[in-house]
Amino acid sequence: MSKAVFIGIDIATSNVRAVAIDRTGAALARASEPLAQVIKGSDKSATQDSKSWITAVDKVLTRLCKQLIEEGFIPKSLLISATSGTFVLCDKNYAPIAPAAMYNDGRASDPLARAAVVIKDLKQSGPFVFANTPEFVIAHLSDQPLAQIPTDTSHALKMGVDLDSCDYLATTKEIASSLNITLPKLVLPGTKIATISNQIAAKLGIPTIPIYAGMTDGCTAQIAAGGATGSVTSLGTTMVIKVVADSNISGDGFYSHLLPSNRYLLGGASNIGGVSYQKYANDIESFNNKAAEIAVANFITYPLTVTGERFPIKSSSITNLVSAKPDSDVMEYRGILEGLAFTERYAYDLLQKAGAKLSQTIYTTGGGGKSKVLSQIRANILNREVAITNTTGSDMGAAFLSLASHTKTGDDLTGELMKINISHGEIFKPMQDEALNSNYQKYLSLITPYI
Questions:
Q1: Neighbour tally for 11: CB within 10 Å
Q2: Would you say 44 and 107 are in contact if contact means Cβ atoms under 8 Å apart?
Q3: What is the pLDDT of residues 188-235, one digit of tens each?
Q4: Residue 409 pLDDT level (bands cut at 50, 70, 90)
Q5: ∠ at Cα 31 (29, 34), nearest 5°?
Q6: How far, in Å, CA of 80 to CA of 86, rounded?
Q7: Who contacts 371 (Cβ-Cβ below 8 Å, separation ≥6)?
Q8: Which among 355, 186, 342 has a CA at the least distance from the CA of 266?
Q9: Banded pLDDT at 2 (limits 50, 70, 90)
């Protein structure tokens, strides 16, 4: 018996990942394909061959759909997530004039400023067509002119978007006009924007699947772990905090994406995280076991490995803060774990004061979730349950949005996302810990000069 499935694709920095889910949110098939290497230049540029996006997406769709069709599944929708800030500039015939500029390209601080550098270096006058990653790929899949493919407000946010009017800011339009750049039209996430063409479908051996507007990889990663209501901490190399609000909230180091029709996903990214205890990574289990035997660290730290922080403290001068020298490697490791938990608590408190809603359970993704001692420290200092998620990844979040986009009524993605069953693993319950709370007060004193 045939069964409807919904496909999510995440175009990351090094690879493309795709997953197909059923109406319950269960993954039924997966595929991945590497992308061209990111080239870093002496001018601080970071670029990638945008054609590799198309090649990789074609391959994952071919493999994924072959498996689905053989098993009697029918793909009903497709949604693409990508890294915000990565773009390619094209000429009037929609051919790239240069390699794609990556989100971390250091030639300028925002996409349009980077586009200006590209244009200046090539000494061209245009006209040019600006494309974020998704619409460049969707133009290929739908066999439509690039200028006819809109972008979503999430992928376009870094260019300057008014979420209330679903339009670019006046300054954004002025800059684009001065550079002779045509920007893609804006639509809300979840809007149907194209269909895979008959020609491409025949070439790849796949169905003619409707394509919906998506959200950035940070948003889809949040949705994969916490749905439309959960607060999510990603503990990878760095720590990323994401929460939900009913209004458009922003501040130093944090801003919001609109999840239609009545939710905003907001948060920020810190420079601390797994990188803070990287030197202990080779023997991490041993250090976790020993750190669990220590009641509380005898020093306080903000465990930066670089100078400068983005969130929850915004400072170009802050560096590793240490109240005292730890008396052993194990004590240092324990203190770093507490520093991570304290920073997470401070970040959530900051977002709550700005108007965000914090869920009773904090959902956790990333490698840091594997540490039981860190998870328990976090639960104790947050005074909330900490749940380790089984459904992780921006591709899974894109699939959730794909399902919600296909089944929604009007613009209400939120309501449909709330129907999806998100699987969670171990849950850590908070316990009273006066010594840890005392250390948190000392932590607040330690960071006071920088806030």
A1: 27
A2: yes
A3: 999 999 999 999 999 999 999 999 999 998 899 889 988 888 999 988
A4: confident
A5: 170
A6: 14
A7: 284, 288, 337
A8: 355
A9: low
- The pLDDT, as a whole number, for residue 365 is 86
- Three-state SS string across the chain, please? CCEEEEEEEEECCCEEEEEEECCCCCEEEEEEEECCCCEECCCCCEEECCHHHHHHHHHHHHHHHHHHHHCCEEEEEEEEEECCCCEEEECCCCCECCCEECCCCCCCCCHHHHHHHHHHHHCCCCCEEEEEHHHHHHHHHHCCCHHHCCEECCCCHHHHEECCCCEECHHHHHHHHHCCEECCCEECCCCEEEECCHHHHHHHCCCCCEEECCCCHHHHHHHHHHCCCCEEEEECCCEEEEEEECCCCCECCEEEEEECCCEEEEEEECCCCHHHHHHHHHHHHHHHHHHHCCCCCCCCEECCCCCCECCCCCECCCCCEECCCCCCHHHHHHHHHHHHHHHHHHHHHHHHHHCCECCCEEEEECHHHHCHHHHHHHHHHHCCEEEEECCCCHHHHHHHHHHHHHHCCCCCHHHHHCCCCCCEEEEECCCCCHHHHHHHHHHHHHHHHHC
User: Which pTM value belongs to this model?
Assistant: 0.89
Contacts of 374 (CB under 8 A, 6+ apart): 235, 288, 337, 340, 341, 368
* Angstrom distance (rounded) from CA 264 to CA 249: 8
Question: What pLDDT, in 10s, does the model give residues 111-144?
Answer: 999 999 999 999 988 899 999 999 999 999 999 9
**The tokens of 248 are what?**
């458009």
Is the sign of the CA dihedral 244, 249, 252, 254 positive or negative?
A: positive
Per residue in 70-83, pLDDT tens?
999 999 999 999 99
Is it the case that residue 1 has pLDDT exceeding 80? Answer: no
> Please, are residues 354 and 249 in contact by the beta-carbon 8 Å criterion?
yes
> Per residue in 152-187, pLDDT tens?
999 999 999 999 999 999 999 999 999 999 999 999
Residue 66's contacts (CB-CB under 8 Å, 6 or more residues apart) are: 205
pLDDT at 89 over 80: yes
Identify the band that residue 280 occupies on the pLDDT scale cut at 50, 70 and 90: very high
